[in-house]
Amino acid sequence: MTKKVQVVINLGTAFNLSARQVGELVYRLINVGMEDAQQVIEGEEGDVAGAEMAASLDITSIVACPVHPEDGDSDQGVPLSATAMNRCLVIVSGGVADYVHDEGVEVELFDWDNYRAETAEGRAEMHVPAHFVDLAQPAGVPVQRSALS
């Protein structure tokens, strides 16, 4: 029998982060902690019992909700699935696709051919979402402006 528990954590930040961005950061922190727990279990050093309890957690979702919605933040929760941070940037040029990805996949397709055609027509509005910036920059792919900039 699986015991279900809901945990509510109120967070604050000095940065102008959206609820989604805060939720994604919490998700990253949880993943780092889970990886550390797995290393403790495998190495049999440290708090193995605590690591085993942590590794037994099945985190199915994170819901980030602004407490006092401002600046266009929705007052509704922003659910983040267990795969919210898994990304794949697909780059197409000359009919050939290439990709850069994290473990798992959130696919964002960018087609250089279509971008160049739109640029030639003076309407290059194609950009990948801001949370793909670290994947897009090395390939020179245009990125939407971030809420942090």
Task: Describe the model.
This protein has 149 residues and is of the alpha+beta class. It has two domains: 19-81, no CATH class; 88-139, no CATH class. Helix content is 31%, strand content 17%. Strands 4-3-5 form a three-stranded mixed β-sheet. It has a two-stranded antiparallel ribbon with strand order 1-2. The chain is elongated and about 60 Å long. It starts with 18 loop residues before the first helix and ends in a 13-residue tail after the last helix.
Task: Describe the structure concisely.
With 149 residues, the protein is an alpha+beta fold. It has 4 helices and 5 strands. The strands form 2 sheets. The chain has a 3-stranded mixed beta sheet. The protein has a two-stranded antiparallel sheet with strand order 1-2.
**Biggest beta sheet attributes:** 3 strands, mixed
Strand content: 15-25%
Strand order of the largest sheet: 4-3-5
**Distance from first to last alpha carbon:** 47 Å
Keywords, separated by commas or semicolons:
elongated; 5 strands; 4 helices; three-stranded mixed β-sheet; 149 residues; two-stranded antiparallel ribbon; alpha+beta
List the topology elements:
Blueprint: H1 19-43, H2 48-55, E1 61-64, E2 78-81, E3 88-93, E4 96-101, E5 107-111, H3 112-120, H4 133-136
Parallel strand pairs: 3-5
Antiparallel strand pairs: 1-2, 3-4
